[in-house]
Design brief:
Radius of gyration: 16 Å
Number of helices: 4
Distance between the termini: 34 Å
Low-confidence stretches: 1-24
Helix content: 25-40%
Strand order of the largest sheet: 4-5-6-7-9-8
Oligomer: single chain
CATH class: Alpha Beta
Strand content: 25-35%
Largest sheet: 6 strands, antiparallel
Length: 142
């Protein structure tokens, strides 16, 4: 089981996890998510009741817990139970008030940067017109 190390990496801004095998793994932070989300067309950040959220228009596609350790993200309702069951230590069902929405939560400490970027991009794609998503992804070569 990884243990939070008090030392940050050479930039001083990232926390690192050390596992008993001696490997170091980065913990995804809200700043990492911001870096991905801010590059997405039509996406913008707002602060609502001391919680950071990212929107496209009025639709929220990402939201963080107040302590910024859990990220909620848009995800198809039909696939939600399977995702949570696949990794119950990583993925969490939405709060009871959010069950009606296409929504899942994830512990940031359990994500790597590639998986985070994929979750953020997929949540954003649920909110933008298909042509906007296609143009953006074509620019990335995907």
């Amino acid at each position: 089981m990884p243990v939070l190390s008090p030392a940050a990496d050479s930039s001083g801004s990232r926390q690192a996890l050390s596992d008993p095998g001696g490997k170091m793994a980065s913990v995804v932070t809200i700043d990492d998510v911001r870096a991905v989300a801010r590059e997405l067309p039509r996406a913008y950040e707002v602060l609502v009741r001391d919680r950071v959220k990212f929107r496209v228009g009025r639709i929220v596609f990402l939201a963080f817990s107040r302590d910024e350790t859990v990220m909620g993200f848009g995800f198809p309702k039909e696939e939600r139970d399977a995702l949570v069951a696949s990794s119950p230590g990583k993925f969490l069902p939405p709060e009871p008030a959010d069950l009606r929405y296409h929504w899942v939560r994830v512990r940031l400490s359990e994500l790597d940067e590639g998986e985070m970027a994929e979750l953020v991009t997929d949540a954003w794609r649920m909110c933008v017109p298909k042509t906007v998503a296609a143009q953006y992804l074509a620019g990335l070569g995907q």
